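hey so i finally got around to running both of the ones u sent me last week. sorry it took forever, my laptop kept dying halfway thru and i had to restart like 3 times lol. anyway pasting them below in the order u listed, first the sequence line then the structure token line for each. didnt double check formatting much so if smth looks off just lmk and ill redo it

first one:
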Amino acid sequence: EESLRLRKEIGETLGYFATLLRYTDLHLEEKKFDDARRIAQEGLSIATKEKVNFGIIRFLQMLGKVEMTTGNLAAAKKNYEEALAFAEQFSFKSIVYELHLAIAQVDKLGGDYESAFDHFEKSVKIKEEVVNYQSNTRLKSIQMFTRIESAQRETELERKKNEELKAAYDIIEERNKDITDSIRYAKRIQDGFLPNDEELEELLGEHFVLFLPRDIVSGDFYWATGVTTTRSNDANARMKVVAAVDCTGHGVPGAFMSILGNMLINQTIRNPDVNSPAEALDYLNRELPKNLKAQNREETIRDGMDLSMIAIDPANMKMHFAAANNPVYFVRDGILTELKGDKQAISGSEDIPKKPFTGRSVSLKKGDCVYLLTDGFADQFGGPRGKKFKYRQLQEQLVSLHDRPMKEQKQLLETIFREWKGDLGQVDDVLIIGIRVN
């Protein structure tokens, strides 16, 4: 309610609508159906008056949800179909997907399995990139559907047709659930090789990790450890080594690459010839093609990794770093310096020329902030014009936030990202690591 008041006061229309939708949802969860319906209708009236098409669609969608929850299926479908017509007119693809799925659920509850299946099929096609692992099941179901003699309208044939369509719909739902459950379990495995909060706190002190996979599992990952190099003048000196890694792809393919990348980075700390971030990247560049067995394939391997790696030497207050494409940002006294890496990736191909990575060092002082990141945040589409966030705007945000506590920086960056993204789909995995030198 306070958010609604403030957003209305400053004239932030889209933010006001977003809060009003959350407010409606809260009443729905508390089973205050009349209040939920009233608030959603109020939002629809305002959006219609101000001709905010996105708001009209979202409030019609919310009214559909209220009516479906209360069992008023005809009213629910009417609201969903009105929202769908608007969404298709203005090409809001992600909302078109949601509305087809919602109408399918209403039709299923009403026993109209043919219409339910039709809407579910449309939702699958729109969301194909995210749910492409369902394609074989969907194809079999469509083939089964086309074999039914649709010209026959006798009561018995219609009943059998509905039964078969319901069975196909249920099969797809069950397969989708099984696959999603499997991927969620895979996320537990992937999370198992990421350093946990306690380990990072002990190693880095004040820090944050903003990690937002696009899908359930991620092609981005982070890595950190404490090591003593053989070139250290002080045998007891420990380096704090941190890496932010962006593997080719996202979702399941990216997750497989992240497992391989994590394994190879772990090997660098056991190799006596690797004593700097640059040497670690050179090692990865040599070993990745061997592990992908590129030489045994006819096609060119395009898989690889972009990453930045730093080694903080607290005893001498220095930071050594090297990077494959991704930058490292360094903020001191409100001034951001971009530490650029080499313009080459860690490549799984043996055909691409590979140059040694360049190692660099900078002096540190207490209170400096260091940020490692992948490209997901900067590449996210959103905002009032549906444009990319871009690195320049991200740099400005980091400068404005750098003097705040690290945990607060994480919360604010996540809020900035989600508000920028809005209802658009997330385009890539997001990873930002922030460290305050202490």
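and the second one:
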Amino acid sequence: TLLMRIADFFLTIPSLPLMIVLAAYVRVDSAPTMALILSITAWAGLSRAIRAQVLSLKEREFIEAAKVLGLRKSHIIFRELLPNMGSYIATNAILAFTGAMYAQVGLFFLGVVPFSSLNWGVMLNFAVSQGGALYTLRSVHYLLAPIVCIVLLQTGAVLFARAMEILFNPRLRVR
């Protein structure tokens, strides 16, 4: 209950302003630091979704049967619940990756994080601020290249998540 109240608190705070404030106070000089900032804002939604799935699964007949048989809680969790949640967790983790990537690109594009490495957010920032990509047609490819890469990666991640869901969820398989 306490963890869910903390998650509720994090879900009420808008993610992007929280990331901007965290990036301003924490010196982002490496990928692990950036991952920490992104995970601080992203864990609450995933934890709430997993909790809802657990609450749904624990009312199913096979869990009730395992309780009636007197199986240990560890056996029920690791042998009954987790195998049935694997695809759900994997799918939501992949979709959380897409949100984290958007947030990371946004932070670099806004210039909140120092330009210590070259990535798509920095490329977009340079294209808009120094390349004049919004003003001249000759420079628009500087803007389009990272946008196309972001769209392709996001589309690939969503398709991969869907394939994982179909692969591991027998109800979604086509006969």
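quick thing i noticed on the 2nd:
Residues 54 and 60 are 10 Å apart (CA to CA).
anyway thats it, ttyl
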